[in-house]
Design brief:
mainly alpha; 7 helices
């Protein structure tokens, strides 16, 4: 019975990196190569949420150490985010992240914002976003 528990603890330890990093990495590459934009949204939303989860863990590490089932809860949550049957990452992004972005930023436009009059004068709320966002045709040379 002791070997069984040792085996389970090793599986539990290995399942995190596989579920949180290896599979999403593979699925992201497949999504980039596919013509569908639906899977791109799922995996981009996953990486946004995973980054937020990791940053939150770093900030709250001293508190989370006292919760013995934290790692298991995190695994279950990430499984829900990752598994294509649930599309949890896309759901959370659509339901909560996009809503808050619209509420606090006044909406997100998918048009070329860098051609607006505010962008030409350097004024407006989105100067930094315009700076880091590639211009249309900039990445087509690859």
């Amino acid at each position: 019975m002791n070997r069984f528990w040792t085996f389970l603890s090793h599986v539990h330890t290995l399942s995190g990196p596989v579920l949180m990093l290896l599979y999403p990495l593979y699925a992201s590459v497949v999504a980039i190569e596919s013509p569908s934009k639906l899977d791109d949204e799922q995996w981009l939303a996953y990486w946004i949420l995973y980054s937020f989860l990791t940053l939150t863990e770093m900030v709250l590490q001293s508190i989370l150490e006292w919760i013995p089932i934290w790692y298991t809860l995190k695994l279950v949550f990430v499984a829900w985010l990752v598994l294509p049957q649930f599309r949890g990452a896309a759901f959370i992004y659509e339901r909560y992240v996009r809503e808050n972005l619209r509420k606090y930023r006044g909406g997100i436009s998918h048009s070329n914002e860098h051609t607006s009059p505010n962008a030409a004068t350097g004024k407006g709320k989105n100067k930094f976003v315009q700076f880091i966002t590639p211009k249309k045709g900039e990445h087509e040379a690859y």
